[in-house]
Specification:
The protein has 139 residues and is an alpha/beta fold. It has one domain: Transcription Regulator spoIIAA. Helix content is 35%, strand content 28%. It has 4 helices and 8 strands, in the order ββββαββαβαβα. Strands 1-2-3-5-7-8 form a 6-stranded mixed sheet, with helices on both faces. The radius of gyration is 14 Å and the shape is globular.
């Protein structure tokens, strides 16, 4: 799991929703941090459940999202393909994936190349870099 040691009141968690697949946290600065749990398979059903969770935690307001994952997380091909179909329904202004191992980096970069997200999308190797990238984007 990612260490959330930021010395800023902005990083304070103001809301959190726990699902079978992930922990979804809303930070005081408006960034949504999602950590996929160990050994889960993220399929279309889970994806649609999380679309509702993401809209709930943001109040439907477009927000920046940071995703990271514990070990052995699988996102099905169907869920990856469906992501572009439901992108217009998601409250996403931009996405950062923290890929701290080669397998996750390959998957994230593959997604960018072939699914071409319509909002800013970046792959980084640390949570701190993810926050820094978002802070450079328009509010």
């Amino acid at each position: 799991m990612v260490d959330l040691k930021e010395n800023s009141k902005d990083s304070e968690i103001v809301d959190s929703i726990d699902s079978p697949e992930a922990i979804v946290r809303l930070r005081r600065d408006g960034i949504v941090h999602i950590t996929f749990k160990k050994d889960i398979i993220f399929d279309v059903e889970a994806q649609l459940r999380h679309l509702d969770i993401n809209n709930k935690i943001t109040g439907g307001k477009k927000s920046y999202f940071i995703y990271d994952a514990e070990e052995n997380v699988t996102i099905t091909k169907e869920a990856r393909d469906n992501a572009t179909k439901i992108e217009h329904l998601a409250p996403v202004k931009g996405t950062v994936v923290v890929a701290n191992n080669l397998a996750y980096r390959i998957i994230a970069n593959f997604y960018i190349k072939f699914n071409k997200p319509k909002t800013p999308f970046k792959v980084v190797d640390s949570f701190e870099k993810a926050v820094d990238w978002i802070k450079c984007l328009p509010a």
